[in-house]
Amino acid sequence: MAAADRSVRRWETCGRAWIALLRHVWAAGQAGMEERGPIIEGPPILFEIASLSWEDPILREHGDGARMSRWSQDRPRRTLHSEFGERLRDLNGVHQLHWVADLLRSRPWTTSAWISLTVPGEDADTVPTLAALSFRIRDYRLIMTAMFRSQNVYRGYLSYIPLRGIQLEVADDLGLPPGPLRVFIDVPHIEVADAGGAATVLASVPEPNAA
């Protein structure tokens, strides 16, 4: 493993990653404030998830079943929050996923296949929590990194499986298998309003081990 990769935490499933994120914020978090109100704010974190599915046993037992059902029924491999979807497929007239695939097709080695979901100078209240996506081909697989400026990790798993759908979409376009989904969160947090729910989940699940 390259030295730069030693800081990347790895989990086999989305459910295990979710529990680890909750523990990360719960153990190292401090009191903070976000637009929606008071939060427990944890240190930045970079991690990978190998396997993502709405059938994940941890998510099915401890996640928000109603929300997962709504997400999974709407084309589970291709769906994402509508705001993100619009910015991916029509930002200033550019279909960014097609742009990325065309770039990687012509330059498979490139590190320039980045998509921004922010618009310079836009109102601060409209800046999406998902700021950018990075795509690269390594070992004949498509690696995707999702960069969040901030995320409430109590609900974060609801975005990871749809993000996997975006990775699969570009991978299919290129005729490549997907690698792991990599995620960076600059401000991982739990809203104080969700603290009781997070504590209940953590008390119910034995502490997992990172791969």
Can you give keywords for this protein?
single chain, 211 residues, alpha/beta, 4-stranded mixed beta sheet, globular
Mind sketching the topology for me?
Blueprint: E1 9-13, H1 14-28, E2 30-34, E3 37-41, E4 45-51, H2 57-62, H3 65-73, H4 82-89, H5 96-106, E5 114-116, E6 130-138, E7 141-148, E8 151-152, H6 157-174, E9 178-185, E10 188-191, H7 195-204
Parallel strand pairs: 1-4, 7-9, 8-10
Antiparallel strand pairs: 2-3, 3-10, 4-9, 5-6, 6-7
Give a description of the structure.
This protein has helices at 14-28, 57-62, 65-73, 82-89, 96-106, 157-174, 195-204; strands at 9-13, 30-34, 37-41, 45-51, 114-116, 130-138, 141-148, 151-152, 178-185, 188-191. The protein is α/β, with parallel strands linked by helices and 211 residues long. The strands form 2 sheets. It has a 6-stranded mixed sheet with strand order 1-4-9-7-6-5. A 4-stranded mixed sheet has the order 2-3-10-8, with helices on one face. β2 (30-34) and β3 form a beta hairpin. α1 (14-28) crosses α7. The protein starts with 8 loop residues before the first strand and ends in a 7-residue tail after the last helix. The model is unreliable at 75-79 (pLDDT under 50).
